[in-house]
Design goal:
This protein has one domain. The protein is an all-alpha fold. The longest helix has 19 residues. Helix 1 runs parallel beside helix 3. The relative contact order is 0.10. Bound molecules: zinc ion.
Length: about 80
């Protein structure tokens, strides 16, 4: 059985679909019993999407994005939507 530490170690391979079938089963078995790792994998998927959406973003944009994500986490909404560019 995988430990949480093992799962964190494999997480990027899980997201990239790089795991062997046997290891995928081990990861799924762990996720089935461990809500902390389920939450962790959800967050990893969000981060992966964000990173892929902004391959060459300058750090200033990443900071703004991080602030935006923090706002979303807090359930706040901006009074006016910010344009993408
Ligand atoms: Zn776990």
């Amino acid at each position: 059985m995988l430990s949480c530490r093992d799962l964190v170690m494999y997480s990027s391979d899980v997201l990239d679909g790089q795991l062997s079938f046997r290891r995928q089963l081990a990861v799924r078995a762990h996720l089935a019993i461990c809500w902390k790792c389920r939450r962790f994998m959800r967050q990893m998927r969000v981060v992966q999407r964000v990173v892929r959406a902004l391959p060459d973003a300058p750090s200033a944009d990443l900071n703004r994005l991080a602030e935006h994500l923090a706002d979303l986490q807090c359930g706040k909404t901006r009074s006016e939507p910010r344009p993408e560019h």
